[in-house]
C-alpha cells in the first residue's frame, strides 16, 4: 500500500520539469537561425537583468523576441489543453473527451470570424484592435460554454450524457455557421481562418494578452486542482461520490467553468490545436496513475512538453516554411492513439 | 413505392443530362477548335458574342480590350472598372451558379486556373458551354494571355495595340531601373500567420520587373513563413497590398511595436511600399502597379520626369485609364493607417 | 416503537446487551413521491414510514420488487429529501447535513460499483477517508492504518494489492464494505448487498455485518429480499409493500404466514428455526 504523498508528487513534477527544461533549451537552439548554447545562456541572463543592449549576437534578439515568446506560448497552451482534457474526461466520465468536445473551439472560431468581419467597420484604437480578434474568440468560447451548460442540464443538474450530446451538436452547428459565413461574406480574405482550423503558435501577443493568458491559466488550473480528490471519487460514480462526501454539483460547476476557460483562452490565441488535450492525459495516466492529484500537474507538464516539441518540429522540418502545429500533433497523435487503444487503456 | 418513383425521375434526368445540347438554333454556327492555356481542347463558335467572365482579372482584360458589350455576366468580386459592377452577377469565382451562367447563354466562359475550379469547368462542359482557361505565371505570360484572348474574341487590333503599349511600358521601365541593383523585398500577403509568395507566382515575376526580388525562396505558392527567417534575411523593403476588402491583422503602423517585427531594419527605417491590389490580378493594370512599385523602390530612377509620356491605350469603347490604380507613395504611417481603414 | 418492547423477548445471541441504549436512528413518518415531470401524477409514492434503531442493531428492509426499499434507504441516507416527516441520526436531520458531514456519519454500500479507470483495492478503500480530508490533502499514516484495519475487519487484507476488476464478486463486495468502514460511520446502509453472491458468500457477508455491528456499535440497515437471511441476522424487520410499510418489528413478530403470503403472492410456511429465529419454507405451487 503506497498512498500518494506530497513528496512523491514533488519528485514526479520535478522530473517532468527537468524534461521540459531540456526540451525548451533544444527548442531555443533550433530554428532558422543558428544559436550557441553559451550565447543563449548569456542572452537569457542579460534579458533577466534587463540589459537587452548587451546581447551577444545579432541573432540573440531573434531568440528572445521571436523564439522564446513562442515557446512560452506553447507551454501555456499545451498545459491548458491537457488540464482541460483531463478535467473533461473526469467530468464526463468518458475517456474520449477532449477540450473541444463541448464545442468550445467552434464557438471561439465563430467569435474570431465575427471579430474579423466587424473590425474594419469599427474605428478602434491601435491597442484595442490587436486584442479584438482574441477577445472575440474568447467571447465566442464563453457564449458556447454557457449555452452548452444550459442545454446539458437535466432536472437542474449537469448530466454527463446530455452534456456530451449537446456539446457535440453545438460544435457541428457552429462549424456549419462558420462555413456559411466564410462562403457568403463577400471578398473577405479568410486566409487567417486556416489558422483556426489547424492551430498556429506564431502570433505575436501583446503584453496585456500574455498576462491574461498566464493569470488565467494559473487561476483556472488551480481551481480545478482543488477538486482533484473529488474528481477521483467522481470517476467511481456520481452517487458513490456523493455518499463519500463530494458536493457533486459544486465540483461539476467549478470544473466545467474552469476547464472551459482554459480551453477558451488557449483557442483564442492559438486556434484549435488537436490531440494534445485528448492524448496527454492518457499517457500520463499510463505513467503516473489515475489519481488526479498527480494527474493534473503531470498532464500540464506533459502537454507543455508535447506542444513545444510539436511546434519546434512544425517550424523546422520544412524551413523556411512552416507547417501548422495542429498537423504535427495529428501526425504524432493519431498513431499514439491507436497504440493506446490497442493496449486497452483508452 | 415513392422510392421507385424518385428513382425513375432521377434516372430519367440523368439520361436527359447526358444528352444535353446547347439551346436549339436554326443552323449550327460555324465553330472552331482551339487549345487553352492549360492544354484543353475546346470547341467555340467562330464569332463570340456572349462572354461570361469568372475571374476579376479577366473582366478587367475584357474592358481593356473594349469588349465589354459582349460581357454578359461576371462574378461578385469583379469590381474594376466600376462599370463592371453593373453586369449581371453569377456568384463568386469558386462557386458560381451554373444555372445563372447557363441562363445567360454564353458562347464562351473565361476562367483562370488559379482562381476557378475544374468542377465548374466540367459542369459547364456537361451542358455544352465551353470554357477557356488562362494560366500565366510571369508578366510576359500575362501579356501573351491578353494577346491570345484578343485574338480569340475577335479584337486582334485592339489587342495588339494594348500589348504593344504594355510592352513599351515595361521596356521603358526596364531601361530606367536596369542600372540599379534589385531591392530585396518581402511581399506580405498576410501578417498573421505570415504568408508570402512563392517563386512560381506571377507576383514574384512582377516584382522582378519592378526591380525587386522576393527574399523568400519557396516552391509553394503561398508559403507560411517563420518570422525568424525574415529577420535573418533582413529584406530592404516590406511590400503591403492595399486591400478593399478588409483590414489585415496588423497594419504597417503596428509593426514597429511588435516583438520580432521590430527587429527588421525595414520596420525600423519605415521602408514600406504599398501598392494597389492590381498586383494581385493578371490584367493590364498590373503593369501600372509594377511601375508604381518601381517608383517606390527606386525613387532615384524617376526624378527627372514627373509623368511619363506614353500614350494611353485607346480602346474603341469608353476610354479607360490604365493608370487609375489608387496607389501612392508612403509618406508617413498616419496616412497609411487611415488609408487602409478608409479604402473600400 | 415496537422494537424495544419486543427485543426483550429474544434469546441473547452473544455480544453486549442491546437493550436500554439510546436511539440512534429515528425514521419518523417519512414519505416520498416522484413523477416523470412535475405536472404529472406521481409514478411512485412512499407512504409514511417509521421505525427506530439503536447502535449495534441490524434492521432489514424487506419487500418484493418496486416496493420502495431503495427509496426508503436513500431517504435514510439523506440523499433524498422526504416529502413529509424526517430522518434523525443522533439528532441531526440527515438530508440537511452537508455532504462531508453526512459522509462522516453515514456510509452507503450500493449494488454496483462501476470503475472508469483501473484501481487497486487499497486505493479504492482509501477513498473512504475522503470525508475527513481537507482540500488537497494527501493521505497520511493514520489513514493508511485505518484502511488496513478496515480491510482486516472484513477479512480482505490479502486483496490489498489486487486490481479491483480482477477480483471475484464476493471479494469485491468485501472491499467495498471496507471502504465504507473507513468512513468511520455511525450508520451503515447496504442496498441488496447479497444480490450477486453465492450462498456461502451471502452468509459470510451477513455474519460479518453482525460482527461489525456488535464490535463497532454500527447501526446497520440492509435492504434485501432474502427472507431467511434477514430473519437470521436482523434485529428488526421493516416489511414494505408498494410503498406502504405493512409491519415493523422483530423477525418473529413480522414473519406471519398470512402476511408474507399476501406480500409475496406465493404459498409458504413459517416455522421456528434451530436458534429460535423464524424460517420460511416456500411451498411448491399447487
Task: Describe the overall structure.
The complex is a heterotrimer of chains A (346), B (344) and C (286). With 346 residues, chain A is mostly helical. Chain A has one domain: ABC transporter involved in vitamin B12 uptake, BtuC. Chain A has helices at residues 6-29, 37-48, 60-91, 104-118, 126-151, 160-184, 191-198, 207-226, 228-234, 238-243, 248-270, 276-288, 292-316, 325-343; strands at 153-154, 157-158. In chain A, strands 1-2 form a two-stranded antiparallel ribbon. In chain A, a hairpin with a 2-residue loop joins strand 1 and strand 2. Chain A starts with 5 loop residues before the first helix and ends with a helix. The mean pLDDT of chain A is 84. Chain B has helices at residues 2-18, 56-64, 98-103, 118-126, 139-152, 156-177, 202-209, 227-233, 252-255, 265-268, 285-297, 333-342, and strands at 31-35, 41-45, 51-53, 71-73, 108-112, 131-134, 183-187, 190-191, 194-195, 212-214, 237-241, 272-275. Helix content of chain B is 36%, strand content 13%. In chain B, 44% of the residues are buried. The N and C termini of chain B lie far apart (56 Å). In chain B, a hairpin with a 2-residue loop joins strand 8 (190-191) and strand 9. Chain B is an alpha/beta fold. Residues 308-344 of chain B have low confidence and may be disordered. Chain B is built from 12 helices and 12 strands. Chain B folds into 2 domains: 30-135, 3-Layer(aba) Sandwich (Rossmann fold); 179-342, Rossmann fold (3-Layer(aba) Sandwich). In chain B, the strands form 4 sheets. A 4-stranded parallel beta sheet of chain B has the order 4-3-5-6. A 4-stranded parallel beta sheet of chain B has the order 10-7-11-12. A two-stranded antiparallel sheet of chain B has the order 1-2. Chain C is α/β, with parallel strands linked by helices. Chain C has 2 domains: 1-90 and 186-255, 3-Layer(aba) Sandwich (Rossmann fold); 109-185, no CATH class. Chain C is built from 10 helices and 12 strands. Chain C has helices at 2-7, 69-77, 99-105, 121-126, 141-153, 169-182, 199-216, 227-233, 251-254, 257-264, and strands at 25-34, 44-53, 58-62, 84-89, 92-93, 106-109, 187-191, 219-224, 236-241, 244-249, 268-272, 278-282. Chain C has a 6-stranded mixed beta sheet, sandwiched between helices. In chain C, strands 2-1-4-5 form a 4-stranded antiparallel beta sheet, covered by helices on one side. Chain C has a two-stranded antiparallel ribbon with strand order 11-12. The longest helix of chain C has 18 residues, at 199-216. The radius of gyration of chain C is 19 Å and the shape is globular. Residues 1-20 of chain C have low confidence and may be disordered. The chains are: A mainly alpha (346), B alpha/beta (344), C alpha/beta (286).
